[in-house]
Write a structure and sequence with these properties.
Elements: E1 11-13, E2 16-18, H1 35-44, E3 51-55, E4 64-70, E5 73-79, E6 85-89, E7 103-105, E8 109-111, E9 118-120, E10 125-127, E11 147-153, E12 156-160, H2 168-172, H3 175-178, E13 188-197, H4 201-208, H5 214-217, E14 232-235, E15 239-245, H6 248-251, H7 258-261, E16 267-273, E17 277-281, E18 287-296, E19 299-308, H8 316-340, H9 355-374
Antiparallel strand pairs: 1-2, 3-12, 4-5, 4-7, 5-6, 6-11, 8-9, 9-10, 11-12, 13-19, 14-15, 15-16, 16-17, 17-18, 18-19
Helix pairs in contact: 4-8, 4-9
The chain binds FE2/S2 (inorganic) cluster and fe (ii) ion.
Length: about 375
């Protein structure tokens, strides 16, 4: 069957074939090593997508903010004095310093650390120190913060820098409908991981969306629970879904949400969302988020947040298990990063538990090929 993602002829960029991988295989390995393609991904893919930046527990009060780098653009999301959530490019319009770092509360204004320009929480420029030193009075209306698009699903906050991605609900389809009974808005973040891995971000994504490796890479951890015969994968325009049944051992340790028990939903439902986000929802109302950001051509940042319906419960053993699983994934990603470079490697055949990998690669190639063809990159 022809790919639903690309119908036009392939283009080439810096020697990389920008083509949806055939339905039974994977993308051009050269795409993991081209600095020019990496730069193009930063300019095109991340800004034109909805990118996860944090959750509402970080943004409760006026002045609460989170930051993220989306492609080449530092961005911030801040709760305004009026209670509104707004997103801005986190760059000072004077001489380009970033304004705030990490996450926290910036008080009633955003003050640039370089020369003290001060902004209201709605982005308007409030003050420029020593104003008489400018040849002309600074036109405050011309130097506000650049606002970008922000939206929220449940408690999860996303930013679209370009402003023209489809609506967030559409981007996440069909996750909002399918996770509606999981009570995820009530789950609390209980622990997190933040690591650097020596692999291209696409290697990380390929692995995140791969379910063929579970009983091998995770033989002593997840693999003990995963019954591969119960795993199912499906893909949509921007998402890919994995469903898996829970075994007796897992179900005996947890309460299934009544709304899910009523429908016999005794499994996990996980969605990978283009370009770099993953959510796994468990039948007890907990969930895991994972996301991966490019740092450079061969280095990525991997983050995991785990949420529980019962934040008081002892989650240490879960945390240890998660750390072990992540370490297993990082190690295999670094091996793949090495092997992809060999001139003797040609992409092999795709297993049905790698459908989401190909789906991700096809979305990526479609977006890049479209931008190259139109010349708007
Ligand atoms: S760069 Fe921000 S005040 Fe100068
Ligand atoms: Fe894995």
């Amino acid at each position: 069957m022809a790919s639903p993602f690309i119908t036009e002829a392939p283009v080439s960029y810096d020697g990389v074939v920008i083509e949806a991988p055939p339905d039974d295989s994977f993308m051009d390995p050269a795409g993991y090593f081209s600095q020019r393609l990496f730069d193009l991904e930063q300019r095109v893919v991340f800004p034109r997508s909805w990118v996860f930046v944090g959750d509402l527990s970080q943004l409760r009060s006026p002045g609460d903010y989170v930051t993220e780098t989306i492609g080449n653009d530092p961005v911030m999301v801040v709760r305004g004095s009026d209670g509104e959530l707004r997103a801005f490019v986190n760059v000072c319009p004077h001489r380009a310093s970033t304004l705030v770092e990490g996450a926290g509360n910036c008080g009633r204004t955003v003050v640039c650390p370089y020369h003290g320009w001060t902004f209201h929480l709605d982005g308007r420029l409030a003050a420029t120190p020593h104003p008489r030193g400018f040849a002309e009075p600074v036109d405050r209306s011309a130097y506000g913060l650049r606002e970008v698009r922000v939206d929220v699903w449940l408690q999860f906050v996303f930013v679209n820098v370009s402003g023209d991605a489809p609506a967030l609900h559409e981007w996440l389809y069909p996750a909002p409908e399918q996770l509606a009974n999981h009570s995820l808005e009530a789950a609390t973040r209980v622990y997190e991981l933040d690591d650097e891995v020596n692999a291209n971000w696409k290697v990380m994504m390929d692995n995140a969306f791969c379910d063929y490796h579970l009983e091998f890479v995770h033989e002593n951890t997840l693999g003990r629970f995963a019954d591969v015969s119960t795993l199912r994968e499906d893909i949509w325009t921007y998402t890919g879904r994995l469903t898996s049944q829970w075994g007796e051992e897992q179900l005996s340790q947890t309460d299934v949400l009544p709304a899910l028990a009523a429908t016999n939903s005794y499994g996990s439902v996980a969605f990978g969302v283009f370009p770099n986000w993953f959510i796994a929802a468990f039948p007890n109302g907990g969930c895991s988020l994972m996301w991966w950001n490019p740092i450079s051509l061969d280095k990525s940042r991997a983050r995991v947040w785990n949420y529980s319906p019962d934040p008081g419960a002892d989650a240490r053993s879960d945390f240890e298990m998660l750390k072990a699983v992540q370490a297993e994934d990082y190690a295999i990603c670094e091996k793949v990063q090495k092997g992809l470079r060999s001139r003797f490697y040609r992409p092999g055949p795709q297993h049905y538990l790698e459908l989401r990998v190909r789906g991700h690669q096809q979305r990526l190639m479609k977006m890049l090929a479209g931008a190259i063809r139109r010349g708007d990159c």
